[in-house]
Amino acid sequence: MRTDTADVERPAATPAFQPLGFGRKLKNGAATALFGAAFLIAVIPLLWVLFTLLQKGLAPLLRPDWWSHSFNGLTANDYNGGIYHALMGTLLEGLVCAIISVPLGVLVGVYLIEYGQDSRFAKVATFTVDILSGLPSIVAGLFIYALWITTFGFNRSGFAVALSLVLLMVPVVVRVTETMLLIVPDELREASYALGVPKWKTIVKIVLPTALSGILTGVMLGLARVLGETAPLLILVGYAKAISFNLFDGGLASLPLVIYTERSTGTEAGDYRVWGAALTLVLVIMLINLAASLLSRLFAVKTK
Amino acid sequence: MSAPEAPAADEPKKVVRAGDRVFQSLATGSGIFIVALIAAVGIFLLLRAFPSLQANQVSFLFSRVWDTSDPNNLKFGITDLAWVTVASSLVALVIAMPVSCGIALFLTQYAPRSLARPFAYIVDLLAAVPSVVYGLWGVVALAPVLNPVATWLNTNLGWVPIFADGNVPANSGANIFTAGIVLAVMILPTITGVTREVFQRTPTAHIEGAQALGATRWEVVRTTVWPFGRNGFIGGSMLGLGRALGETVALTIILSGVNIGPNFSVFDAGATFASKIALGSAEFVNDMQVGAYISAGLVLFVLTFAVNAIARWIESASGKGKA
Lengths: 304, 323
Known about the structure:
Chain A has 304 residues and is mainly α.
């Protein structure tokens, strides 16, 4: 029973939570276990995929000629041959894609942060980048097909692939540039202006170098992502079993294309090549990711 | 660079330098280019799809036929494609949504702070595996393990239409059921990433307030974190849906070509919009045939555009209204 004075001091209200009984403890424990289990559920496929890759794909990678030969002249049952042609094709396409995407993406990021700010057009551009980052890779491929091959009349080629990859990589570069430019302290810009440095020079010489490590990391991560894309390759370039450095004409192999195409051989040797290529592709992506984190550490600007 | 100072400036204080002008127009031009690019995607797909759509002998939206072998007698409809696309994406969402939410809560509310970052990195690694590898893994490693589950679902819950017999045996592995699970793994990092970020933004005052009232960890989550982050979670799930709808190669590998139409069960094989286009690449010789596939691509573009736009809208709306 409450006394009158206590009622005045503390209005009658049921406590928000009942004393910690068995039921609440149980619920809390169950929730903790459930959320932890959810995390484990995500780890299982990751380890499983890596295990399958290593189990099936390691043998070819241990042969030295895997890295120095192509699949040229191989029959369906041949265990010789190497991935060199596809490795070069993948790196070549990635390089061209990066050469176009990086300046474009960085400039868009600079526009959004340094010039556009809250203008209406900047909002439209931000929305566009959002939509672009959700663009299915097959649609990017179809668009380049409709533009580059049907309308302009060029041949299917590695360059067309690189163009379609640009559509997928630019939003990544824009995003990371935006984030990094936002972190650059305004004091730096103001100090530069106060010294009479023009805005563009401030951006090029002060702001971008400060954000460089972050942008580089983002570029590498974006590159790693697009190198694994297969869908645009299927419609934009023919598969070549031989080594080729020709980006503008004829077939060009790449790691994802090897995986997809060699699958159809349906032989054990075909499987051997497919899994070898798959492990090689994942290795390339992991190496780029690793390089990204190393770069970010090397070039990190000391703040504080 | 010593750019000549522009004398035309009206206000004597503000000097516009040539370098400034060039650089600003470069940056703005790039912005305009990007916006024009997404418009060009829509316009060019539409332009290329139009002649084929006009020549189409059957209803594009409601036909279940896809026969583009004769460029002069095109028959293509998207009903079956739409079913397989939507069904596999929904299976993926049903699995990935609760798991992602659980992971996001685990990472933001439960995992020790020093481990939260490496744990998040592990989940992000799932996104680094290329989809073609997921396709291989799905067929070779996952499907055999799933077969007993699929068979069980089919025999015991076969009276539910979606678990009824499909156009391939339930234990074949090459069906929407397997594809959906592979897709779920692929969209897990997307949904988790967005959700984690929103959950992290839960005001500390709310959490501490609940703790002060004597809430357990679970009650804190239920009363503050979840109501705050719910919309962000839904937005993130929509982003994941967008990715699932457009996923190509993994599905092409898993749901490999079956010519009979699906029976509207998860034990169907078939083709999604994206995998149909990938499979059709051999037919990319005649503009009319290509146009049929571009029509399918256009539908996919519109679909993913809509889903992503809604996702971004929900995401940006959440967290603003409530403090």
